[in-house]
Design a protein that fits this description.
The chain has helices at residues 3-7, 34-48, 152-155, 181-185, 194-197, and strands at 10-14, 17-22, 27-28, 31-32, 53-61, 68-79, 84-92, 95-105, 143-149, 164-171, 205-212, 221-226, 230-231, 234-242, 248-257. The protein is mainly beta and 260 residues long. It has one domain (3-107, 124-257): Acyl-CoA thioesterase, double hotdog domain (Porin), CATH 2.40.160.210. Strands 1, 2, 5, 6, 7, 8, 9, 10, 11, 12, 13, 14 and 15 form a 13-stranded antiparallel β-sheet that branches. A hairpin with a 2-residue loop joins β13 (230-231) and β14. The longest helix has 15 residues, at 34-48. The chain starts with a helix and ends with a strand.
C-alpha cells in the first residue's frame, strides 16, 4: 500500500460510522493540510456508498484538525444507478471539525464528449524541475512540489505579483495518484495570493470544492492554481490539474482568508 493509502485508511465501526487516524507528515504549522483531511473523509464516503469515486466534494472547515484519532459519520442522502449523494461529518475530541457534501460515481463508466476552453500548460519535464523543499512545511514530506512559475518566492523571497503557481505534484514515495488522492493534491500548492502579499501570511481555508473528472494516469500531475481577487482579506483559489497523459483530471475552488 502507498503511504497515502495507509495514512488515509479508516475502519467501519457501525452503520455509517468510521474511525480513522490523522497522521504526522501532513501538517502546515500545527494544523493538518485541508486536502489531506478531506481525503480521509473521502475514504469513509467511498466505503459507505455503492459508488467508489468522488465526483464532487465540498468541505467546510469549522476548526483546525490535529494529529490523532477522528470519527466520521456518513449520511447517505440518495443513491441512483449513476450517482450517490451523501453528507459526512468529522469529529475530533468530540468537536465537529469538518463537514462535507459529496456526489460519488464510477469514473470508469463516464461517457460523453470532451471540450475545454483552456489548454493544458506546457511545462519543462518533471525530472528537469527542481524540488521546492519548503523545509518548515511538513506537508512536503508527503506531497512533492516542483514549481515552474512562482518558485522565486521560496528561493529569493521575491513576490512576483502574479497570483499564480504553476508546476508539478507527486507523492514523495513515488506511488501513482488515484482518484481519492486528487482531493489532497487539490490543496497541495501554496496559496497563490502569497505571490502578491509575500510569504509571511497565513491563509486558512474556509471552504474547498473539488471536482474529479477522470481517473489519473500513472505519473506526476501538472497543476495551475490562481487567485484573482482579494477583498477585505477574503480570496478565492482556482486550480486545474492534468495527469501525465494530458487529460484534465480535477478542478478545484476554495475560499480562504488572508492573515498575518
Amino acid at each position: 500500500m502507498s503511504q497515502f493509502a495507509i495514512e488515509t485508511a479508516v475502519d467501519q465501526v457501525g452503520e455509517g460510522r468510521f474511525r480513522g487516524e490523522l497522521h504526522p507528515g501532513w501538517r502546515i504549522g500545527e494544523a493538518l493540510n485541508g486536502g489531506y483531511v478531506l481525503a480521509v473523509a473521502g475514504r469513509a464516503l467511498s466505503l459507505a456508498l455503492p459508488h467508489p469515486d468522488p465526483l464532487n466534494t465540498t468541505a467546510y472547515y469549522l476548526a483546525p484538525t490535529g494529529v490523532g484519532p477522528v470519527e466520521i459519520e456518513v449520511e447517505v442522502l440518495r443513491s441512483s444507478r449513476n450517482t450517490s449523494f451523501a453528507a459526512a461529518k468529522m469529529y475530533q475530541d468530540g468537536e465537529l471539525k469538518l463537514q462535507v457534501s459529496a456526489a460519488y460515481g464510477d469514473l470508469d463508466s463516464l461517457q460523453g464528449e470532451d471540450w475545454s476552453a483552456t489548454r493544458r500548460p506546457q511545462y519543462p519535464p518533471f525530472e528537469e524541475c527542481p524540488v521546492v523543499a519548503q523545509r518548515r512545511i511538513e506537508l512536503r514530506q508527503r506531497a512533492e512540489m516542483r514549481l515552474v512559475g512562482g518558485a522565486e518566492l521560496f528561493s529569493e523571497r521575491v513576490s512576483s505579483g502574479s497570483g499564480e503557481f504553476n508546476g508539478w505534484l507527486s507523492h514523495v514515495d513515488g506511488s501513482d495518484p488515484d482518484a481519492l488522492s486528487l482531493l489532497m493534491f487539490a490543496d497541495a500548492f501554496p496559496p497563490p495570493i502569497l505571490t502578491v502579499c509575500g510569504p509571511r501570511h497565513w491563509v486558512p481555508t474556509v471552504e474547498l470544492t473539488v471536482q474529479v473528472r477522470a481517473r489519473p494516469a500513472p505519473g506526476p500531475l501538472q497543476a495551475r492554481v490562481v487567485s484573482r481577487h482579494l477583498t477585505r482579506g477574503v480570496l478565492e483559489e482556482d486550480g486545474e490539474f492534468w495527469d501525465s497523459a494530458g487529460q484534465l483530471v480535477a478542478l478545484s475552488r476554495q475560499s480562504a482568508r488572508l492573515r498575518l
